[in-house]
Design a protein that fits this description.
The structure holds three protein chains of three kinds. By secondary structure, chain A is of the alpha/beta class. Chain A is about 20% helix and about 30% strand. In chain A, the strands form three sheets. A seven-stranded antiparallel sheet of chain A has the order 4-3-7-1-2-6-5. In chain A, strand 5 and strand 6 form a beta hairpin. The longest helix of chain A has 13 residues. Chain B is an alpha+beta fold. Chain B has a single domain, classed as Jelly Rolls, CATH 2.60.120. Chain B is globular and about 50 Å long. Chain C is α+β, with helices and mostly antiparallel strands. Helix content of chain C is about 30%, strand content about 25%. In chain C, the strands form four sheets. An eight-stranded mixed sheet of chain C has the order 3-2-8-9-10-11-1-12, with helices on both faces. Chain C has a four-stranded antiparallel sheet with strand order 7-6-14-13, with no helix packed on it. Chain C has a two-stranded antiparallel ribbon with strand order 4-5. The chains are: A alpha/beta, B alpha+beta, C alpha+beta. At the A-B interface, strand 11 and helix 4 of A face strand 5 and helix 4 of B.
C-alpha cells in the first residue's frame, strides 16, 4: 500500500485546479456597452441628469435595474465611475443623476446629447422591495441621496394603496440644490385615501424666496410611531446623516433589521473582485450598496473602516 | 380638522412634559393661553425680554435674524407639535432671534416669567423642567452641527 | 507494462539528473516550464530552459525584515525556501489588457482583448504555494458565483471568455527540506505536507554519496510524463523518509499563528490600542501585499493614445496600502496608515473567512521577510490577543 503524504486540513483540498489560470478570463466582465445620451437636464449648478439609450436595443441593452442598483458609466479615455440608476424608461433607457466631483463625473456632466457613454450593469443589492407590501414606509433622502431612492419612490407613488402610511422626507442644502424639484411638488400634490401620505421637503439654508421648512432632514421624522414594528425605513444620503437618521429611527422603535441604508465606496470592478469597495466583511458593490442597519450599525461607528 | 381641546389636555398629552405630575402640569397649563397669529406676524423680537415659550398647534413658525444686505434669514422652522423658545430659562432672558409666523398659526403661549418663579421656589421641579429643556437644546444643537458639516455640499472644495 | 493510471499513487526513485529529463519532457509536450532562478540576490520564478537554470547549491536565510541568499555546502537544487515572488504572477499577470475601443467621431465600441495564455508547467511548487493557488481559486469561484449580471456571461456581443479555456498548469511540487525562520505553514495547516493538486511531488534526497529524487505521482497527467523517465522502484524506507522530513520541517518552525475564532477575533478588536502601535512602524509601503501569494486586489487603468482615438482598459495589481485605494469624493476613507494596516490584517486573517471560507494566509512568511521594518504578523496577532490599553 502506498502512503501518500498526509492530506492537509484545507477546505479546498479536493478541488481540481480547473480555471486557475486567470489569463484573459475577465475581460468580458469589464466590457462596457455603448449607450447614447438621448437627453440631459441640469438639476443644479453641479448636477446633471442624463438619459442613456442603448445604441442598439436588441443587442446592446442591459437588463433593467432594480431600485437601488447602480451602473458603471464610462467616458471614452477618461474613466469609469459607479452611478446609481435613478430612473428606467420602458424603451430600456436609463436615467442617471451625476454630480461633478472628479474627472469622470465632470466629463459625464459635460456629455452632449448624441455622445456615447459606456454602460455596464446593473450591479448591487437594491432596496428591499419584496418586504415593503402592507407596511408603513419611511423614506429619508439627503441631498443627492434622493437619486438612488427615486425609482423606489416612483414605484411607491404609483401603487400607494399597497402600503400603510407613507412618509417621505427630503433634505437639501439650499432651495436651488433640490433635485427633481418639479417631481417632488407633483408628489406633494397627490392624495391618498388608504393611509397617511406625506412628502416633506426641508433645506439646510433658506434663500429669500423659500417659503418651506428650514432645518436638518432628520427633523422631519415623525416624533412618535404608534406601530413601529409595521414600519420599514429606507435612508440615503451622506453617511453621517444616515448614521444619525438610523439611530433616530431606532429610538422611534424600529428594529435595526427594518432600517436600510445605501453605502458608497471606491469601486473599480463592481462585481466583488478588485477589492476596493470592501467595508470590513462586505463588498459594497456586491453585498450592497443597500444594507440593513442591523448588518452595518457597529461597523459604521468604527473610524476609517 | 382639529378638535378643540383644552390647554390642560394638550399639555398633559405632549411627550415633552411627560412625567411631571398632574399638579405641575395643571400649573403649567395655568400659565398658558391660546393664541392665533396671521402669517408674517412676529411672536418675539430679537433682543426683547424673553418671558415665554410656544407649543405649536397648527401652522409654521420660524426663527429668523436680519442680516444687513440679505434681509431676514430663516434659521429654522417649526410646525405642529414642536416647542420653541428657551431664552426665558437663563439670564439675560433676552430673545436671541426673531420668532415669526410663516403662515397663520395657532399655538399655546406659556408664560415664562410665571414658570421661572415657580422653578426658583421649587428646585426639584425646576430641575425637572431644566432637564427637559436641556434635552431639547442638545437635540437642536446636534441638528445644527449636522447642518454645519455641510455634507450635501460640493466636497471637492472641502479642505 | 502498466498503464499510466496504474502509476497514480505510486512513488519512484530517480537520480538527480532525471530532473533535467523531466523538464525536457515537459517542454517537449508543449509546456512553458517555469521555475526558480537566481536573479540578482534572490530567487525568482521565471521561465527556465533546463535544469542548469535552477539555483543549484543556493539556500536562503530569512527573518523579519531580512532575506539573504547563502551558499549551501551541498548542491541541492531546491535548497532555498521561497523568494519574493509567487506563482500568482504567472496565473494572474500583473498587468493585462481587458479591452480596446476605437473612436469614430462621437461613437466608439469596445472590443475584448484576446490574450494568449501558454500551457505552463511550474517546477518546484511548495506546499504553501499550492495552498495559495487554491485560495486564489476559491476567491475567483466565489466572485463568479456572485456575478450580479448573469446576462453578461451569455450576451450576444463578443463578451465571452476566449474559446478553449487554458488548462490548469502542470504542477511539480517539492517537499521542503527545511523551514525558513519565517515559515509557519504548519500552524496554518497548509504544509509542510502537500494536499492534493500537484501532478508530481518531488522530494530531494541528498547526502555525501547520493543525490536522488523521490517522485510521487498524483495524477494521470503526471503519470504520463513520468512514464517517459527512467523510474526506479522506491525502497521501503522512502515513504517513511518523506514523513520524517515533513515532521522535522514542521517541528522546526518557530513561528505560529493560532486563532481559534478568527473572524470574531478581529471583529471584536477593530479599535484595539495595538493598531496604534503597528502604525508607528508600518511604512504603508505595500511590500507585504506585493509578495503575498493570495492578495488579489486589482485596479483598472483607462488610457488613450495621443490622438484620443484609441482607448484601452488595463487591469493591474493594486494594494490596499495605497493611499487612494479607498478614495471617494472628498478623500480616502482609510487615510491613516493605522486604518490601512488594520484593513490588511483583519481581511487576510479575519474577514477572509467570512468571505471565502478559509484563511487568506498560508503561512509562507514572505510578508515577514520582505517588510522593510520587519513587522511580523504572528507577533502582531499575539499583541492583539492582549487586552487593549
Amino acid at each position: 500500500m502506498v502512503t501518500i503524504a498526509k492530506e492537509v486540513n484545507f477546505s479546498q483540498a479536493e478541488v481540481p485546479l480547473k480555471g486557475t489560470v486567470v489569463g484573459a478570463g475577465d475581460g468580458h466582465r469589464y466590457l462596457p456597452r455603448a449607450y447614447i445620451v438621448s437627453a440631459r437636464k441640469r438639476e443644479a449648478a453641479d448636477t446633471v441628469t442624463l438619459t442613456l439609450k442603448p445604441k442598439d436595443s436588441i443587442t446592446d441593452a442591459w437588463p433593467l435595474p432594480e431600485p437601488g442598483q447602480f451602473n458603471m458609466l464610462y467616458v471614452f479615455a477618461v474613466g469609469e465611475i459607479p452611478v446609481s440608476v435613478c430612473g428606467v424608461e420602458s424603451d430600456g433607457a436609463f436615467r442617471h443623476t451625476i454630480r461633478r466631483v472628479g474627472a469622470v463625473s465632470a466629463a459625464l456632466c459635460d456629455s452632449k446629447v448624441g455622445s456615447t457613454v459606456g454602460v455596464r450593469g446593473a450591479y448591487g443589492v437594491g432596496w428591499p422591495v419584496a418586504r415593503m407590501k402592507q407596511r408603513s414606509l419611511i423614506i429619508l433622502a439627503g441631498g443627492l441621496g434622493l437619486a438612488p431612492l427615486r425609482m423606489l419612490i416612483l414605484q411607491v407613488v404609483r401603487s400607494r394603496v399597497d402600503f400603510a402610511d407613507i412618509t417621505i422626507c427630503i433634505g437639501a442644502r439650499t432651495p436651488s440644490d433640490v433635485p427633481f424639484l418639479r417631481e417632488i411638488r407633483s408628489w406633494q400634490r397627490l392624495k391618498c385615501d388608504a393611509g397617511l401620505f406625506d412628502v416633506r421637503l426641508i433645506v439646510d439654508r433658506a434663500d429669500r424666496d423659500w417659503r418651506g421648512e428650514v432645518g436638518v432632514v432628520t427633523a422631519l421624522l415623525p416624533r412618535s410611531l404608534t406601530a413601529p414594528e409595521l414600519s420599514l425605513a429606507m435612508i440615503c444620503g451622506p453617511e453621517v446623516m444616515m448614521r444619525h437618521a438610523a439611530s433616530g429611527l431606532v429610538r422611534l422603535g424600529l428594529s435595526r433589521s427594518d432600517i436600510y441604508l445605501s453605502l458608497e465606496r471606491n469601486m473599480k470592478c463592481a462585481f466583488g473582485q478588485c477589492g476596493h469597495c470592501q467595508f470590513n466583511r462586505y463588498f459594497v458593490c456586491r453585498d450592497g450598496p443597500i444594507f440593513s442597519f442591523e448588518k452595518v450599525a457597529s461597523l459604521l461607528n468604527v473610524k476609517d473602516l | 380638522m382639529v378638535t378643540l381641546r383644552t390647554i390642560d389636555d394638550q399639555i398633559a398629552d405632549h411627550p415633552f412634559f411627560a412625567g411631571l405630575g398632574s399638579d405641575f402640569l395643571h400649573f403649567i397649563a395655568g400659565c398658558g393661553r391660546n393664541r392665533y397669529v396671521e402669517g408674517g406676524e412676529y411672536l418675539a423680537h430679537e433682543g426683547d425680554d424673553a418671558n415665554a415659550f410656544f407649543l405649536i398647534r397648527i401652522g409654521k413658525i420660524s426663527i429668523e435674524t436680519n442680516v444687513p444686505g440679505r434681509g431676514p434669514v430663516v434659521l429654522e422652522t417649526f410646525g405642529a407639535g414642536d416647542i420653541a423658545g428657551w431664552s426665558w430659562i437663563c439670564p439675560p432672558y433676552k430673545w436671541a432671534f426673531d420668532v415669526v409666523a410663516r403662515e397663520a398659526a395657532s399655538f399655546i403661549e406659556i408664560n415664562g416669567l410665571c414658570l421661572r418663579g415657580k422653578c426658583e421656589a421649587d428646585p426639584v421641579l425646576g430641575y425637572a423642567v431644566l432637564k427637559r429643556f436641556a434635552g431639547m437644546m442638545s437635540e437642536r444643537l446636534r441638528d445644527t452641527r449636522l447642518r454645519l458639516l455641510d455634507l450635501y455640499g460640493n466636497d471637492r472644495k472641502r479642505s | 507494462m502498466s498503464s499510466a493510471s496504474d502509476l497514480v499513487g505510486s512513488c519512484f526513485r530517480v537520480s538527480s539528473d532525471v530532473l533535467g529529463l523531466l523538464i525536457r519532457a515537459l517542454k517537449d509536450d508543449g509546456y512553458m516550464t517555469i521555475g526558480p532562478r537566481k536573479v540578482a540576490e534572490s530567487i525568482q520564478l521565471e521561465v527556465i530552459d533546463s535544469v542548469d537554470d535552477l539555483p543549484r547549491g543556493w539556500g536562503d536565510q530569512q527573518d523579519a525584515g531580512s532575506y539573504r541568499l547563502v551558499r549551501r555546502s551541498d548542491s541541492a537544487y531546491f535548497g532555498y525556501n521561497l523568494g519574493a515572488d509567487s506563482w500568482k504572477k504567472w496565473l494572474d499577470p500583473r498587468r493585462k489588457l481587458l479591452w480596446r475601443a476605437k473612436r469614430d467621431g462621437e461613437s466608439w465600441e469596445a472590443e475584448q482583448s484576446q490574450m494568449q495564455v501558454p500551457r505552463m508547467a511550474f517546477i518546484g511548487v511548495r506546499a504553501c504555494e499550492l495552498a495559495a493557488i487554491k485560495v486564489q481559486l476559491r476567491v475567483r469561484e466565489v466572485t463568479q458565483a456572485h456575478s450580479s449580471s448573469p446576462d453578461a456571461q451569455s450576451s450576444t456581443l463578443s463578451a465571452e471568455p476566449p474559446a478553449g479555456v487554458p488548462e490548469e498548469p502542470f504542477l511539480v511540487g517539492i517537499n521542503c527540506s527545511q523551514a525558513a525562520a519565517t515559515c509557519f505553514c504548519s500552524s496554518m495547516h497548509t504544509g509542510p505536507a502537500f494536499g492534493s493538486g500537484c501532478d508530481l511531488v518531488l522530494t530531494e534526497v541528498i547526502n555525501e554519496d547520493n543525490h536522488n529524487f523521490l517522485i510521487q505521482i498524483q495524477t494521470k497527467r503526471g503519470a504520463i510524463i513520468s512514464s517517459k523517465l527512467p523510474l526506479l522502484p522506491s525502497i521501503d524506507d522512502d515513504l517513511a523518509h518523506i514523513d520524517r522530513q515533513i515532521a522535522r520541517v514542521s517541528d522546526s518552525q518557530s513561528r505560529q499563528l493560532n486563532i481559534s475564532n478568527p473572524a470574531e477575533f478581529f471583529s471584536r478588536r477593530l479599535e484595539h490600542s495595538h493598531w496604534d502601535d503597528v502604525a508607528t512602524r508600518c511604512l504603508s509601503c505595500a511590500n507585504c501585499t506585493l509578495v503575498c501569494p493570495t492578495c488579489f486586489c486589482s485596479t483598472v487603468e483607462d488610457t488613450t493614445d495621443v490622438k484620443n482615438a484609441v482607448a484601452e482598459r488595463w487591469l493591474r495589481w493594486d494594494s490596499c496600502f495605497h493611499l487612494d485605494f479607498s478614495f471617494i469624493h472628498g478623500g480616502s476613507v482609510r487615510s491613516s496608515t493605522r486604518s490601512r494596516y488594520r484593513q490588511w490584517l483583519t481581511h487576510k486573517l479575519g474577514t477572509w473567512h467570512e468571505q471565502f471560507g478559509s484563511s487568506g494566509c498560508v503561512g509562507c512568511g514572505r510578508c515577514i521577510a520582505w517588510c522593510p521594518v520587519g513587522i511580523d504578523l504572528t507577533a502582531e496577532v499575539k499583541s492583539l490577543s492582549q487586552p487593549t490599553q
